[in-house]
Design brief:
Four copies of one chain form a homotetramer. The first copy, chain A, has 358 residues and is an alpha+beta fold. Chain A has eight helices and 18 strands. The longest helix of chain A is centred in the C-terminal third of the chain and has 20 residues.
């Protein structure tokens, strides 16, 4: 189903951009897990809008409330339900687009699918706001994974034509990852980060937007987890990640560049490490073979399109008048979704990895 | 589950590379559909090995048998089960790799997952051979889609560094697609195709392999089908496509290149066509917005790694002796999986698209 | 999953007896349905405790709040989430049973399953209180079904040894069903109803409880809906109905009494009615053959055990001291769950029937 | 889906009564399990027709073939696919009923559901023959359960008005169960068994049929397995058991008789056994509380209607002529399905119990 995902750990998301509340129900979290709720709030703050000049000025404190699933601060086996109330909708901004679908948004197909009864305000359930409950779920999963020695972090690999360094697919470690998690603009190369911010501000000044790429990494995930064919790590990660609005491409390990390589160059040779563990000399496979983890760092990159909502006037159609028209989108929008999408990617990965371990 | 996929159309695949048979059970095919079985066989022939110098010499006629689901040559509502017997296994080729996992294959993680009880012969259920039943299912779906005016075709977009032309994302039509389906080496630019074949033969001569990219297109799929969040066209296409062994990257529409664009450049403007249909001027979105079809051609590209099985000696480990060792893979293997993967990609797309229509 | 059910209409329930809130997320409700919320509240009032001398004095107004899924009072295609806050928990009543599981309750197996981290207060997620969100979902489904000419009603077929009349399986009609829905003690034979109430009050006076049977009927459900084997009407109705705490038996049509009949007596002969519809002369099959509806009234009966919570002292064990002990349950409890279970059965049926129509 | 069931252990059934073959795909069986195939064949023999005067003379040896999933006689993690070829269809017997649906069969609703394209021969996928692949799957599960100390057996509790003894719900043990499994007519009281056989032969002589009840028991299943709400042992057992054609009622533990009891009489008191295990003094709960096992014997009873196919002339309708008509069913049929259903019930229980343990 659209808003349900997962096998042993089953996630149900509810809400729309401008509904009374949005939230998530998590079933399958083991009983007895202590949840550090301020860590959840801190994780949510990484995704929250309005925190700097690069993001929308929509100001949502996004304080979650736990409705069920805890007993004496520990999970109790009942579904864990967390809710965030929507406080700052400004629904009046969305009057015109009821009739004139915004280019590159889901307005037009959502109109068709719902027979015109879709909630257009803020994109309804197609809004990037639906990634807030995904992050709530991910924040809980990240805590549980951390207790099992598994760490996930992501960074902005590129914005427009500015490239960050990439993770070292062999040597990436907790130190590198923790330093990323501590940065308000998560890049490996701070110079690149500054240039990226310039690109975003230029786009904003032009009433325009830019796209980018996020690279994510998971370390400590044990070898031998996953499944062949349709239920492997890549399949499931892809299914959840393509649920993030604006994500249009995904690659694991060497990804698209592997298509240009020869086997002798691409194949990752196995060897026994000094600790007696089986490792690979290179990591073009991105930690996954046959849908199953190999114990090497799991590496993926996701491409995000530029924010569809731009201030410039655009061509569109009037659904009621059945004619071409112009549209100028009002409202507040991120000139680049990539920065706020970083914790969302981490959350999605965390949900999938924990599912396999349960 | 690993070998199950689909919602209204549910596919279950069974078999291993060297089991007595492989096959597929399809549940949800509407009753009353006439199945042209020779068209199914023709489709299977496109994937079959041994047809030219570029593919493995393993010779499997791959003649499917229908076990259930038909009545008077029409589907009857019962599960449609089709089976292919495995005739030419040469299992003796796989003795050594029981202990020494082949680099870049699933042998090592499969060993871990199964506690050493996995069937290593030909890769067991991790083999590319498992795409044969996927093609069987896809061949049936393609027929049913064709009756509803929907056509799917794919071509080799690149091998190594040789690029084919790409589909025109606005104007791609049945004529172009039919001509691709008729070619034994499906490319849009035949010169590029010849250069690609040289690359494959060079790799083969070097006991090596090469990777490549496949681009696929679906036209005629009506607007308004799909779902938001986790169950959209991109999510489901990704889930099934990452089930094809060797696939390591996937992008829709402009994909990774959209990450470098500005919104004003990337946004596809809506307009009313002369026929009164809503279309977009450009098709960077690849026919999908918010997980739902827009009526524009659905366009995707998938990156395939070079065939892991190469004749050159490689470094690996002995699982029993717990030491580093060398491995030289015997047996017959495709120097490039891309050619045979073209119909597999088409089949996977067909399965997903039909599911949404049921 | 435990708290998820449904195919086209997917229900996710959350909460525990004493959590901050309980609720339900419904995905798959068609967009554009007008929801009469006061009718939902009226339906909830039928299940609410504290309304007469026969039910627990726990007083929960059970006013639901809609968190998402509506737009201009109509469903909009987003998940419909409804929540009820828990106001009157009196958690102190449950101190002792943390260590001494109540006989015939889920306390002991829940303790095992959760490693002792289960929320024992009010039975946690095993509580009959979890049927409140089921009723919320059912109330919405009943409205949508009613617009399609489908009506569902249930009555108390027996309490202890007092039998109500049964539905006429051929002639049951909207008039009979509406009159049941209007009664605070829903029986067909009011004399029997009075005798049943005496039985309940006697049990209550003895600090004891009694069981009973509920019979339910659905009319207007069109022929030809359902599925063979594992996904038929009987399978799905059974799966959801056994989710109602205290339900221990279920039969369709003639049910257990069919086991004593001969085929010639039991078989329901087909005939064309005066309206030209195919009907059966008798309805031992209960409106379902091969898992699929026949257009005849759907009839089922469900047996409920006596409320496990009784005031009398009982034998149990101390989990911590690992010894036999005595337990006297405090708190307020229904002496017979059957009365409050009537709308729950209707709700569960409504959820299943609507799912097939979507 | 109709022919798919299970969570960790996923079963897919294919075939029709008169298709080329019927079979089952099992996904999720742990790798490394040794399968005793002659034990599977012996189990199938218990269900096979034609073995005595009480069952249909249709003679199907029902020898299964393993198509995939084994390696060196052990499961290997790939889907286990087993197939039985259909040899003795006599399809000509079914010409008339294409137009005149048999009373109490699925013919009419199946016709509606499939738009008239259903395979009527032998009932197509609605046939009792579809329980053969269910038994194949169950036979494998029973072996794996047996290695974990879990045993399942069923007996004929009644045919027509002849009652067998019931299992002692506290003391039922492996000795009693093994003796049942060894009997060609599985009853606890052999006198009752002889009387039952008389009833069946009388019905057969009258070209009629009779119904009956099967009682089943599982011992050794550990406490603490199952789930609350919709995914409990009762829910899942009910879902699969109602997939057995002719099953119309189901009860656990005291079942319908609990509805007549008072709580003080019905509640099963906990105590510590001499071995230090928590047990209950009585077992009205049938080994399941809150959907979770308690460690006590799991007890259920299922009611089967009389075989719908009887030799007597019956009233029905002509679908093409839209008029009432008479029908006299030719072909060979069991006068009582209960005998052959005994292993089917055991198989269904085994599939569910193993699923929870995986």
């Amino acid at each position: 189903m659209s808003f349900n995902i997962g096998d042993h750990l089953h996630i149900t998301i509810f809400g729309q951009s401008h509904s009374k509340a949005i939230g998530v129900v998590m079933e399958g979290i083991p009983a007895g897990e202590m949840i550090n709720f301020s860590a959840v709030e801190n994780f949510m703050a990484r995704r929250a809008p309005g925190k700097n000049a690069l993001t929308t000025t929509r100001n949502e404190p996004d304080l979650p409330v736990i409705l069920s699933g805890l007993n004496n601060e520990r999970t109790c086996g009942a579904p864990l339900c967390m809710m965030i109330e929507n406080h700052d909708p400004r629904s009046k901004d969305y009057a015109e687009i009821q009739d004139v679908p915004r280019p590159m948004h889901a307005d037009y197909p959502a109109y068709l699918k719902s027979g015109g009864f879709n909630d257009i305000r803020g994109g309804g359930p197609y809004s990037g706001r639906m990634t807030a409950p995904l992050c709530l779920a991910g924040a809980v999963c990240l805590q549980i994974l951390a207790k099992r020695g598994i760490k996930i972090a992501a960074h902005i690999a590129s914005i427009a034509d500015v490239q960050d360094l990439l993770f070292d697919p062999i040597c990436v470690d907790a130190f590198v990852m923790d330093s990323l998690l501590a940065r308000s603009f998560p890049v490996l190369d701070e110079n690149a980060g500054e240039n990226m911010q310039v690109k975003v501000q230029e786009a904003k000044a032009d009433q325009d937007s830019v796209g980018g790429v996020i690279e994510a990494c998971a370390i400590g995930f044990p070898a031998g987890y996953g499944d062949p064919m349709f239920d492997g790590l890549e399949n499931r990660l892809a299914q959840i990640l393509f649920g993030i609005p604006a994500l249009k491409g995904l690659e694991f390990g060497a990804g698209f560049s592997s298509a240009k390589m020869r086997g002798s160059e691409h194949n990752d040779a196995f060897y026994f490490s000094e600790k007696g563990e089986i490792r690979t000399r290179t990591n073009h496979h991105g930690g996954i073979l046959g849908g199953i983890s190999t114990g090497m760092p799991i590496i993926l990159r996701a491409a995000f399109k530029p924010t569809p909502s731009i201030g410039k006037e655009q061509d569109s159609v009037s659904l009621s008048r059945k004619e071409n028209t112009k549209l100028k989108i009002q409202g507040r929008h991120d000139p680049c979704v990539v920065l706020r999408a970083v914790p969302v990617v981490e959350a999605a990965i965390a949900i999938v990895l924990l599912d396999y371990l349960l």
